[in-house]
Structure formats: structure tokens, C-alpha cells
Amino acid sequence: MIRAWSSTEVVAAERPMLDAGVPLMEQAAFALASHVTRALRRAGHRVPGSVVLLLVGGGNNGGDALHAGAHLARRGAQVHAALLTDRAHPEGLAAARRSGVRVHQVLEDGVPPTERVLGLARRAGVWVDGVTGVGAGGGLRHPVAEVVRSLAADRAGWPQEPMVVAVDVPSGIGVDDGTVPGPVLPADMTVTMGAAKPGLLLPPAAELAGRLEVVDLALPLPAGGAPAVCRLTSADVADLWPRPTSSDHKYTRGVLGVLAGSTTFPGAAVLSVAGAVRTGLGMVRYLGPPGATTLVHARHPEVVAVPGRVQAWVIGPGVDADDPGRAEQAQDAIEEALAAGVPVVLDAGALQLLPEDLPDSAVLTPHAGELATLLGSRGEAVTRDEVEAAPARHARLAAELTGAMVLLKGATTVVAGPTGPLYAQADAPPWLAAAGAGDVLAGVLGALLAPYGDRLQELLDSGEDVTAGVARLAAAAVVVHGEAAQHAAGLHGPDPGPGRPLSAGDVADALPTAVGQILA
Ligand SMILES: NC(=O)C1=CN([C@@H]2O[C@H](COP(=O)(O)OP(=O)(O)OC[C@H]3O[C@@H](n4cnc5c(N)ncnc54)[C@H](O)[C@@H]3O)[C@@H](O)[C@H]2O)[C@@H](O)CC1
Ligand SMILES: [K+]
């Protein structure tokens, strides 16, 4: 699991080590230089002869860049440092000069002239972004904001873009909330010090961080304390997977009720059932209109289409909340699920039928537009764009207002409960942005929740942190769904290339392979 800690916690953890004289900046800079070296080699270049430009701000982030530049210069790189303020880190600057880094004080009347920085930048194959790190907030300010904006625009126009390496974070992101309040130079790699920061995992900032490398500085982060943001890996998913044993039967493996599909959207029923069945569970009970039931049976004859006891529910994919009969049926199912105290996934149409208060064993699965509508119905008027600009904050707000777990779908999906760490999963290839993919995800999540349904009350009674458990399972469902999409898009294997188009059905069909690979 990748854990991200807030900038306050990281700075607090660094303090006793710095007081004890541990040379954290030297360690950080050495690791940074090593990562740049490795990245150059991966790209088929050698360090001697490579031209590196350090973009240096006035704090310790610039200090890291200068010290790393000194290492790279000693390894034979031609290193230039563009000082974007008049207060560059003194020891870093001295070390850089001693090692042959060419230092350019590019300020004119206190302002770095963009053309001059661009001139240096165009000669370099690697740009090291050491403008600001955890010490800055609220987006880059004038005048460095203009420099960074021009560099980002200039780079995008190059036939062969330089490699951008961000020091600690891409300068200008919202380090703790993942927002992008102003210009940011998108990085190919971010070398982050001590621990990942929330903005490196949360969208939209995370999408500007590139490959993430965490430098272990042995920081005394609170033992057992909760990080701000987590990201599950396939290995974490394997650990929590409900692997069947020889003593299992269909009821112990979980029975999932699926109320999905309508005359208008019968396909959603097929896809959400496929998501559940192909993830693996004891049984699916399907409730829907006759036409959709026929379609479901044609694909999944094992599905039972009569009501009965279930251990979890998926309610809402393809359900038209404006169809009074169907809305009433969905509402009854929601009430039944909540009264029985079993986990329930509330998707699509069901999001318009929510009761006032929900438990955190209910998982809402909106996309940004649906979340904006949901928040609007709770007195928080926001647009879809506002949700997309700060997904973590809005997902958390919706969780606080409803009491439920919120899984906000996107290129990076965020899971937020009313309390506890957030999860941010970036497992989906862009090919997954296709109709019906969300229906499959609802089914996957239902299949993962069903085996826990009967034990939920028991877990609550024993003081287990159910919120944390449900959040983890929701994040796990996103991992499995994303992995299946990788398979369906042909993105597995040593040299996968650009991938290929997929349908939601292809994703469902790839689920057994994805699960098998995760558990292998
Ligand atoms: N505490 C330490 O000794 C360690 C710190 N490390 C590095 O130090 C960084 C933190 O250093 P600092 O606390 O000095 O802060 P930063 O270097 O992150 O930022 C402070 C600098 O940015 C400027 N600034 C602040 N807000 C700005 C804005 N909105 N727009 C433009 N400029 C702005 C300030 O004037 C100052 O020059 C970390 O991100 C990491 O890179 C690492 O070396 C590890 C050890
Ligand atoms: K930076």
C-alpha cells in the first residue's frame, strides 16, 4: 500500500531528525540524483554528456535540487541552475558551484525573464523542478507562475520533450488536497521525500506527477496512525481477497441481490450481473423487468431471478428513477437492505432515491456529474467542473452529508468515508472510459461485499472498524476493475504498446483473468 501523509505530518516528523543533526537534505538529494541517473539510463542516455537544468526556488526544495545537481555534475552531466529568486539555498548553492554547476541568476529587476529561462531550458534534456515543495501553498505566485506556465507550454510544443523530474512534488500543486490551483509543469517522474504526499495520489494533481518514487528517510511518522490518503496495490488486494476454501458453499461465499436494468436500459442489468458473477461469489439473485431478466439469463443462466435472502445488494444500474413503479421497487429494496443491515451499493438511478441518512456500509458510486447533483440535493450547489477540480474534498463532503461511503469514479477514483483515510486508485487505462463500465464496477463491488454481509453486525458489535473495511473493499473493487480493463485493452505483458479499444462486456469477461493474476 502506498500511504500519503499531509505536509504538516511530514514536516513534524522531519523536525526531531533535523534537530538530531541527521543530514536529511543530503540524503534526499543523493536519492534524487540517483533516480535521475536511472531515468536517464532507462531512456537510453548516459549521465556524462546529458544536459540538466535545475529550476531553483527560494526554499529547501530548491536546496534539494542544487545538492542533487552537484551529484549529477560530479557524475559528468552538464548541469545548469536557473535561480528564480534571489534567495537560493546557500549551502546547496555552494555545493553546486563547487561541483561545476553553472549558476544563472536570471532575475532582472526581481523578475526572472521568461525568455532567458526558456533559452536555458531548450538546451537541456532534463528539467529538475525544484521551485517549491511542501513549504508553499495556494498555487505558484507571480513571477514564478509565469515562468512555469511558459515552460509547460513550450515543452508541449517540442518534438522530443525534455524529461521533467519534480522534486518532492510538482511545484504549484495543492500538496494536501490534490487540486491544481495554477500553472504546474507536468512531471515524468516525481521523487518525493520521506513519504508520499496526498496531492501525489489525489486527482487532478496526481495526473501531473508521473512515475512516483518515494525516498525512504526513515521519518518517524506516527506508528499505527492513519495516513491521509492510501493507494492499494495488487498485493494488498490479494491479501484481503475472500479466497474460497473446501468448506465453503454458495451461502458462505456470499449471495448478492442485484436490482438493475429497465426496459430502456436492459444492458445495465447484464453488465452489473456480469461484473459480480465474473468476480466470483456464491450466487446472484436478480430483480428486474421481464425483458432484462431474459437478457440476463441468456448470458448468465446461473442467476436466480426470484426474491430471497441476500447478504449484500447492488441497486440502481440502469434503473430509471423517473419510472414510478421501478423507483418504488428500488426504494423498497434500499429500505430492506438498510433494515437488514447488509452492505449495499447504490449506483446510477438509486442515487436519486437516497434516504436522508445512510450507514457507512452503503457505498454510493457516482461519477462527477452525479456527485454534483447529489450535493445539490443536500444544499451544496456545485458544478461538475468544481467536483472535478477537487474530487477528494467533494467526495468527503458527500460522505459527511449522507453518512455513506462515496466511491467517486474518474480516471483516478477516490473513495471517501465520513471519516478515515481516503483511497485514490489510478488503475484504469483511458480505454475504460466507455459506456457500461460503471455497471460492471458496481457488480464487482457487490461481489466483494457479499461475503461480509452476514458478519457485518458481528463486526460492528466486536468494535471492528467497518468504515475502514468497507473503504478498503471499495478500493479493491476499483483495482480489480482497472486490472480487468488493462487485460481487455491488451495492456498486459512486457511490451504492451498503446492498447486497444474495449467494451464494458470485455472488461467483465477479463475479470476472472485479472483476479487470477492478482491472486497468483
Ligand atoms: N525539512 C528538511 O530539511 C527537508 C526538506 N526537504 C525539502 O524541503 C522542501 C520544503 O522546503 P521549504 O519549507 O523551505 O519550502 P519550499 O522550498 O517548498 O517553498 C518555500 C519557497 O517557496 C516560496 N513560495 C512559497 N509559496 C509560494 C507560492 N505560492 N508561489 C511561489 N513561491 C512560493 C517561498 O518564498 C520560499 O522561497 C520539501 O518539499 C523538500 O523538497 C528535503 O530536503 C528533506 C529534508
Ligand atoms: K518541486
Give structural notes:
It is built from 19 helices and 17 strands. With 520 residues, the chain is an alpha/beta fold. The strands form 2 sheets. The chain has a 10-stranded mixed sheet with strand order 1-9-17-16-15-14-13-12-10-11, sandwiched between helices. Strands 4-3-2-5-6-7-8 form a 7-stranded parallel sheet, with helices on both faces. Helix 5 runs parallel beside helix 6, helix 8 packs across helix 18 and helix 10 crosses helix 16. It starts with a strand and ends with a helix. The structure holds ligand NAX and potassium ion. The site of potassium ion (K) has 11 residues, from strand 5 and strand 6. The site of potassium ion has 11 residues, from strand 5 and strand 6.
- Average pLDDT for all residues: 94
CATH class of the largest domain: Alpha Beta
What is the CATH superfamily of the largest domain? Ribokinase
**Count of the separate structural domains:** 2
Termini gap: 18 Å
Strand order of the largest sheet: 1-9-17-16-15-14-13-12-10-11
Beta-strand residue percentage: 5-15%
What is the gist of this entry?
Belongs to the NnrE/AIBP family. Belongs to the NnrD/CARKD family. By secondary structure, the chain is an alpha/beta fold.
Observed structural traits:
alpha/beta; binds potassium ion; ATP-binding; Bifunctional NAD(P)H-hydrate repair enzyme; UDP-N-acetylmuramoyl-L-alanine:D-glutamate ligase; ten-stranded mixed beta sheet; 19 helices; metal-binding; seven-stranded parallel beta sheet; 520 residues; 17 strands; elongated; 2 domains; binds ligand NAX; Rossmann fold; nucleotide-binding
